[in-house]
Protein backbone atom coordinates (compact mmCIF):
# COMPACT_ATOMS: atom_id res chain seq x y z
CA UNK A 1 0.00 0.00 0.00
CA UNK A 2 2.83 2.39 0.88
CA UNK A 3 4.51 1.75 -2.49
CA UNK A 4 1.26 2.43 -4.36
CA UNK A 5 0.74 5.67 -2.44
CA UNK A 6 4.32 6.75 -3.18
CA UNK A 7 3.87 5.97 -6.87
CA UNK A 8 0.67 8.03 -6.88
CA UNK A 9 2.44 10.99 -5.26
CA UNK A 10 5.25 10.78 -7.82
CA UNK A 11 2.70 10.74 -10.64
CA UNK A 12 0.96 13.85 -9.29
CA UNK A 13 4.32 15.57 -8.83
CA UNK A 14 5.25 14.78 -12.44
CA UNK A 15 2.05 16.41 -13.67
CA UNK A 16 2.66 19.57 -11.64
CA UNK A 17 6.23 19.69 -12.96
CA UNK A 18 4.92 19.38 -16.51
CA UNK A 19 2.12 21.93 -16.19
CA UNK A 20 4.31 25.06 -15.98
CA UNK A 21 5.59 24.25 -19.45
CA UNK A 22 2.08 24.91 -20.71
CA UNK A 23 2.34 28.51 -19.53
CA UNK A 24 5.53 29.47 -21.33
CA UNK A 25 3.68 31.74 -23.74
CA UNK A 26 2.41 35.19 -22.84
CA UNK A 27 -1.21 34.39 -23.59
CA UNK A 28 -3.66 31.86 -22.24
CA UNK A 29 -4.37 28.70 -24.19
CA UNK A 30 -7.90 29.88 -25.03
CA UNK A 31 -6.60 33.16 -26.48
CA UNK A 32 -3.83 31.32 -28.34
CA UNK A 33 -6.37 28.86 -29.74
CA UNK A 34 -8.64 31.70 -30.89
CA UNK A 35 -5.75 33.26 -32.81
CA UNK A 36 -4.88 29.90 -34.35
CA UNK A 37 -8.52 29.30 -35.30
CA UNK A 38 -8.71 32.69 -37.05
CA UNK A 39 -5.46 32.02 -38.90
CA UNK A 40 -6.71 28.59 -39.98
CA UNK A 41 -9.98 30.10 -41.18
CA UNK A 42 -8.08 32.70 -43.19
CA UNK A 43 -5.94 29.95 -44.73
CA UNK A 44 -9.04 28.21 -46.09
CA UNK A 45 -9.88 25.63 -43.43
CA UNK A 46 -13.66 25.37 -43.15
CA UNK A 47 -15.55 26.68 -40.14
CA UNK A 48 -17.23 23.27 -39.81
CA UNK A 49 -13.91 21.46 -39.40
CA UNK A 50 -12.59 24.06 -36.97
CA UNK A 51 -15.72 23.77 -34.85
CA UNK A 52 -15.52 19.97 -34.89
CA UNK A 53 -11.81 19.72 -34.11
CA UNK A 54 -10.94 22.74 -31.95
CA UNK A 55 -13.98 23.06 -29.70
CA UNK A 56 -13.64 22.07 -26.05
CA UNK A 57 -9.97 21.09 -26.25
CA UNK A 58 -7.38 21.94 -23.63
CA UNK A 59 -3.68 21.24 -23.07
CA UNK A 60 -2.93 17.63 -22.12
CA UNK A 61 -0.41 17.55 -19.26
CA UNK A 62 0.43 13.90 -19.94
CA UNK A 63 1.73 14.84 -23.40
CA UNK A 64 4.10 17.46 -22.00
CA UNK A 65 5.25 14.92 -19.45
CA UNK A 66 6.01 12.40 -22.19
CA UNK A 67 7.77 15.06 -24.28
CA UNK A 68 9.97 16.07 -21.34
CA UNK A 69 10.53 12.68 -19.77
CA UNK A 70 14.06 11.36 -19.81
CA UNK A 71 14.39 7.57 -19.92
CA UNK A 72 15.69 5.91 -16.78
CA UNK A 73 18.29 4.17 -18.87
CA UNK A 74 19.35 3.95 -22.49
CA UNK A 75 18.48 0.66 -24.13
CA UNK A 76 21.34 -1.24 -25.65
CA UNK A 77 20.87 -2.29 -29.24
CA UNK A 78 20.23 -5.88 -28.18
CA UNK A 79 17.65 -4.81 -25.61
CA UNK A 80 15.89 -2.77 -28.28
CA UNK A 81 15.92 -5.72 -30.68
CA UNK A 82 14.54 -8.04 -28.00
CA UNK A 83 11.59 -5.68 -27.64
CA UNK A 84 10.74 -5.01 -31.27
CA UNK A 85 11.96 -8.14 -33.09
CA UNK A 86 10.75 -10.88 -30.78
CA UNK A 87 9.43 -14.34 -31.68
CA UNK A 88 5.79 -13.27 -31.50
CA UNK A 89 6.33 -10.34 -33.85
CA UNK A 90 8.27 -12.52 -36.29
CA UNK A 91 5.54 -15.17 -36.30
CA UNK A 92 2.79 -12.58 -36.69
CA UNK A 93 4.79 -11.04 -39.51
CA UNK A 94 4.92 -14.33 -41.38
CA UNK A 95 1.17 -14.76 -40.93
CA UNK A 96 0.41 -11.22 -42.09
CA UNK A 97 2.72 -11.55 -45.08
CA UNK A 98 0.93 -14.71 -46.17
CA UNK A 99 -2.56 -13.37 -45.45
CA UNK A 100 -2.03 -10.15 -47.40
CA UNK A 101 0.35 -11.39 -50.09
CA UNK A 102 -1.94 -10.69 -53.06
CA UNK A 103 -2.44 -7.05 -52.05
CA UNK A 104 1.21 -6.67 -51.08
CA UNK A 105 2.37 -8.00 -54.43
CA UNK A 106 0.09 -5.53 -56.23
CA UNK A 107 1.46 -2.65 -54.17
CA UNK A 108 5.01 -3.94 -54.64
CA UNK A 109 4.60 -4.00 -58.42
CA UNK A 110 3.36 -0.39 -58.39
CA UNK A 111 6.08 1.07 -56.13
CA UNK A 112 8.97 -1.43 -56.48
CA UNK A 113 9.24 -2.12 -52.75
CA UNK A 114 9.48 -5.72 -51.55
CA UNK A 115 6.45 -6.90 -49.51
CA UNK A 116 8.51 -8.13 -46.56
CA UNK A 117 9.75 -4.61 -45.84
CA UNK A 118 6.23 -3.21 -45.86
CA UNK A 119 5.16 -5.85 -43.37
CA UNK A 120 8.25 -5.25 -41.20
CA UNK A 121 7.57 -1.50 -41.05
CA UNK A 122 3.95 -2.20 -40.21
CA UNK A 123 5.02 -4.56 -37.45
CA UNK A 124 7.55 -2.27 -35.79
CA UNK A 125 5.49 0.91 -36.09
CA UNK A 126 2.17 -0.38 -34.74
CA UNK A 127 2.50 -4.13 -34.12
CA UNK A 128 0.55 -4.82 -37.33
CA UNK A 129 -2.08 -2.20 -36.60
CA UNK A 130 -2.73 -3.16 -32.97
CA UNK A 131 -1.03 -0.17 -31.33
CA UNK A 132 -1.80 3.00 -33.26
CA UNK A 133 -2.03 5.36 -30.28
CA UNK A 134 -4.94 6.59 -28.21
CA UNK A 135 -4.41 10.35 -28.22
CA UNK A 136 -6.59 12.78 -30.22
CA UNK A 137 -4.16 14.10 -32.80
CA UNK A 138 -5.44 17.68 -32.97
CA UNK A 139 -5.45 18.12 -29.18
CA UNK A 140 -1.99 16.54 -28.95
CA UNK A 141 -0.53 18.82 -31.59
CA UNK A 142 -2.26 21.86 -30.10
CA UNK A 143 -0.71 21.02 -26.72
CA UNK A 144 2.77 20.75 -28.22
CA UNK A 145 2.31 23.80 -30.45
CA UNK A 146 1.24 25.93 -27.47
CA UNK A 147 4.17 24.65 -25.43
CA UNK A 148 7.37 26.60 -25.91
CA UNK A 149 9.90 23.87 -26.70
CA UNK A 150 9.15 22.93 -30.32
CA UNK A 151 6.12 25.09 -30.97
CA UNK A 152 7.04 26.12 -34.53
CA UNK A 153 7.33 22.53 -35.74
CA UNK A 154 4.15 21.32 -34.06
CA UNK A 155 2.16 24.38 -35.16
CA UNK A 156 2.92 23.44 -38.77
CA UNK A 157 1.92 19.85 -38.07
CA UNK A 158 -1.32 21.05 -36.47
CA UNK A 159 -2.23 23.05 -39.58
CA UNK A 160 -1.40 20.01 -41.71
CA UNK A 161 -3.71 17.89 -39.55
CA UNK A 162 -6.53 20.42 -39.99
CA UNK A 163 -6.02 20.36 -43.78
CA UNK A 164 -6.23 16.56 -43.76
CA UNK A 165 -9.53 16.79 -41.90
CA UNK A 166 -10.77 19.51 -44.23
CA UNK A 167 -9.98 17.30 -47.23
CA UNK A 168 -12.25 14.64 -45.76
CA UNK A 169 -9.78 11.80 -45.34
CA UNK A 170 -11.03 11.05 -41.81
CA UNK A 171 -13.54 12.39 -39.30
CA UNK A 172 -12.15 14.65 -36.54
CA UNK A 173 -13.31 12.26 -33.80
CA UNK A 174 -11.47 9.37 -35.48
CA UNK A 175 -8.12 11.12 -36.00
CA UNK A 176 -6.22 9.32 -33.26
CA UNK A 177 -2.50 8.71 -32.93
CA UNK A 178 0.55 8.85 -30.71
CA UNK A 179 1.16 11.53 -28.09
CA UNK A 180 3.40 13.36 -30.61
CA UNK A 181 0.83 13.30 -33.41
CA UNK A 182 1.97 10.30 -35.47
CA UNK A 183 -1.11 8.80 -37.06
CA UNK A 184 -2.55 5.54 -38.27
CA UNK A 185 -1.06 2.11 -38.85
CA UNK A 186 1.94 3.62 -40.62
CA UNK A 187 2.43 6.30 -37.91
CA UNK A 188 2.75 9.22 -40.30
CA UNK A 189 3.09 12.73 -38.97
CA UNK A 190 0.58 15.02 -40.75
CA UNK A 191 3.34 16.40 -43.00
CA UNK A 192 4.31 12.86 -44.02
CA UNK A 193 0.66 12.12 -44.69
CA UNK A 194 0.39 15.11 -47.01
CA UNK A 195 3.61 14.19 -48.81
CA UNK A 196 3.30 10.41 -49.04
CA UNK A 197 -0.16 9.07 -48.13
CA UNK A 198 -1.70 7.29 -51.13
CA UNK A 199 -5.28 6.52 -52.12
CA UNK A 200 -4.59 3.11 -53.60
CA UNK A 201 -8.20 1.97 -53.90
CA UNK A 202 -9.31 5.30 -55.46
CA UNK A 203 -12.18 5.91 -53.03
CA UNK A 204 -11.24 9.55 -52.55
CA UNK A 205 -9.71 9.05 -49.10
CA UNK A 206 -6.17 8.29 -47.97
CA UNK A 207 -7.06 6.02 -45.07
CA UNK A 208 -3.92 4.98 -43.17
CA UNK A 209 -6.04 4.14 -40.13
CA UNK A 210 -8.21 1.32 -41.46
CA UNK A 211 -7.60 0.52 -45.14
CA UNK A 212 -4.74 -1.93 -45.75
CA UNK A 213 -4.44 -0.96 -49.41
CA UNK A 214 -3.82 2.66 -48.47
CA UNK A 215 -1.62 1.68 -45.50
CA UNK A 216 0.73 -0.48 -47.58
CA UNK A 217 0.71 1.86 -50.57
CA UNK A 218 1.47 4.91 -48.41
CA UNK A 219 4.43 3.17 -46.80
CA UNK A 220 5.66 1.96 -50.18
CA UNK A 221 5.26 5.44 -51.68
CA UNK A 222 7.31 6.90 -48.81
CA UNK A 223 10.16 4.42 -49.36
CA UNK A 224 10.02 4.69 -53.16
CA UNK A 225 10.31 8.46 -53.04
CA UNK A 226 13.14 8.14 -50.50
CA UNK A 227 15.30 6.32 -53.04
CA UNK A 228 14.37 2.68 -52.41
CA UNK A 229 15.78 0.02 -54.74
CA UNK A 230 13.91 -3.23 -55.24
CA UNK A 231 16.93 -5.04 -56.68
CA UNK A 232 18.88 -5.04 -53.39
CA UNK A 233 18.21 -5.73 -49.74
CA UNK A 234 18.90 -3.42 -46.77
CA UNK A 235 22.22 -4.85 -45.60
CA UNK A 236 23.57 -7.77 -43.58
CA UNK A 237 25.39 -8.56 -40.37
CA UNK A 238 29.12 -9.01 -40.95
CA UNK A 239 32.42 -9.78 -39.30
CA UNK A 240 35.23 -7.28 -39.55
CA UNK A 241 38.95 -7.84 -38.94
CA UNK A 242 40.77 -5.95 -36.20
CA UNK A 243 43.06 -4.49 -38.85
CA UNK A 244 40.35 -2.16 -40.23
CA UNK A 245 40.82 1.47 -39.24
CA UNK A 246 37.87 2.67 -37.15
CA UNK A 247 37.72 5.82 -39.29
CA UNK A 248 36.14 3.63 -41.97
CA UNK A 249 33.01 3.01 -39.87
CA UNK A 250 29.87 5.07 -40.33
CA UNK A 251 27.53 6.14 -43.11
CA UNK A 252 29.89 8.81 -44.41
CA UNK A 253 32.33 6.14 -45.64
CA UNK A 254 31.00 4.36 -48.74
CA UNK A 255 32.84 1.57 -50.55
CA UNK A 256 31.94 -1.15 -53.01
CA UNK A 257 31.39 -4.73 -51.86
CA UNK A 258 34.66 -5.75 -53.51
CA UNK A 259 36.52 -3.05 -51.60
CA UNK A 260 35.06 -4.19 -48.27
CA UNK A 261 35.88 -7.78 -49.22
CA UNK A 262 39.51 -6.78 -49.89
CA UNK A 263 39.62 -5.15 -46.45
CA UNK A 264 38.63 -8.43 -44.82
CA UNK A 265 34.92 -7.89 -44.20
CA UNK A 266 32.98 -11.16 -44.38
CA UNK A 267 29.44 -12.43 -43.87
CA UNK A 268 28.60 -13.34 -40.29
CA UNK A 269 29.21 -17.02 -41.11
CA UNK A 270 32.70 -16.18 -42.39
CA UNK A 271 31.94 -16.63 -46.09
CA UNK A 272 32.68 -14.08 -48.82
CA UNK A 273 30.50 -11.06 -49.45
CA UNK A 274 28.26 -11.14 -52.53
CA UNK A 275 30.17 -10.24 -55.68
CA UNK A 276 27.93 -7.36 -56.75
CA UNK A 277 28.62 -3.76 -57.60
CA UNK A 278 26.79 -2.42 -54.57
CA UNK A 279 27.96 0.52 -52.51
CA UNK A 280 27.86 -0.04 -48.76
CA UNK A 281 28.88 1.33 -45.37
CA UNK A 282 29.83 -0.34 -42.09
CA UNK A 283 27.72 0.67 -39.09
CA UNK A 284 27.54 -0.31 -35.43
CA UNK A 285 23.97 0.43 -34.24
CA UNK A 286 24.88 -0.14 -30.61
CA UNK A 287 27.32 1.92 -28.58
CA UNK A 288 29.10 -1.17 -27.30
CA UNK A 289 29.93 -2.28 -30.87
CA UNK A 290 29.07 -5.94 -30.37
CA UNK A 291 27.21 -6.29 -33.68
CA UNK A 292 28.31 -4.85 -36.99
CA UNK A 293 26.33 -4.42 -40.21
CA UNK A 294 27.20 -3.70 -43.82
CA UNK A 295 24.32 -1.50 -45.03
CA UNK A 296 23.19 -0.44 -48.48
CA UNK A 297 21.15 2.32 -50.09
CA UNK A 298 17.85 0.95 -48.72
CA UNK A 299 19.12 1.37 -45.16
CA UNK A 300 19.45 5.08 -45.90
CA UNK A 301 15.88 5.11 -47.21
CA UNK A 302 14.72 3.61 -43.91
CA UNK A 303 16.60 6.35 -42.07
CA UNK A 304 14.55 8.94 -43.96
CA UNK A 305 11.49 7.31 -42.38
CA UNK A 306 13.04 7.35 -38.91
CA UNK A 307 16.52 8.75 -38.25
CA UNK A 308 17.57 5.96 -35.94
CA UNK A 309 20.13 3.25 -36.69
CA UNK A 310 18.31 1.09 -34.15
CA UNK A 311 15.04 1.47 -36.05
CA UNK A 312 16.44 0.96 -39.56
CA UNK A 313 18.44 -2.11 -38.53
CA UNK A 314 15.45 -3.60 -36.69
CA UNK A 315 13.22 -3.17 -39.76
CA UNK A 316 15.86 -4.90 -41.87
CA UNK A 317 16.32 -7.79 -39.46
CA UNK A 318 12.57 -8.27 -39.02
CA UNK A 319 12.07 -8.27 -42.79
CA UNK A 320 14.73 -11.00 -43.10
CA UNK A 321 13.09 -13.06 -40.34
CA UNK A 322 9.64 -12.69 -41.90
CA UNK A 323 10.92 -13.85 -45.29
CA UNK A 324 12.91 -16.74 -43.80
CA UNK A 325 10.83 -19.88 -44.12
Write out the CATH superfamily name of the domain at 11-69 and 133-183.
Bacterial muramidase
Number of strands: 7
Written as H for each helix and E for each strand, in order along the chain, the element string is: HHHHHHHHEHHEHHEEHEEEHH
Largest sheet, strands/sense/barrel = 5 strands, antiparallel
Stretches where pLDDT is under 50 for at least 5 consecutive residues are: 4-24
Name the average pLDDT: 91
Helix content: 40-55%
Strand content is 5-15%
Distance between the termini: 50 Å
Radius of gyration: 22 Å
CATH architecture title of the domain at 11-69 and 133-183: Orthogonal Bundle
Q: Sum up the overall morphology in one term.
A: globular
Secondary structure category: alpha+beta
CATH class of the domain at 11-69 and 133-183: Mainly Alpha
CATH fold field value of the domain at 11-69 and 133-183: Helicase, Ruva Protein, domain 3
User: Tally the helices: what do you get?
Assistant: 15
Biggest sheet strand order reads 4-6-7-3-5
Q: Could you characterize the architecture of this molecule?
A:
The radius of gyration is 22 Å and the shape is globular. With 325 residues, the protein is α+β, with helices and mostly antiparallel strands. The strands form 2 sheets. The chain has a 5-stranded antiparallel sheet. It has a two-stranded antiparallel ribbon with strand order 1-2. The chain has 15 helices and 7 strands. The chain starts with a helix and ends with a helix. The protein has a domain of 110 residues: Helicase, Ruva Protein, domain 3. Helix 14 crosses helix 15.
Amino acid sequence: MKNKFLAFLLFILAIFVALPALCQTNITFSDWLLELRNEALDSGISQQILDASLTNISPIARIIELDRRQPEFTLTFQEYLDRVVNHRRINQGKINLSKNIELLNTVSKRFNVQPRFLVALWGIETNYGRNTGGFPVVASLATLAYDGRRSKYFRKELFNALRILDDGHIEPSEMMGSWAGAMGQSQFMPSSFINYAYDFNHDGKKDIWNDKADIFASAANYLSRSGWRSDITWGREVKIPNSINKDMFGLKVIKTMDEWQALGVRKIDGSNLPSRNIKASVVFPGKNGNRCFLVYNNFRALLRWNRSNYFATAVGILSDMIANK
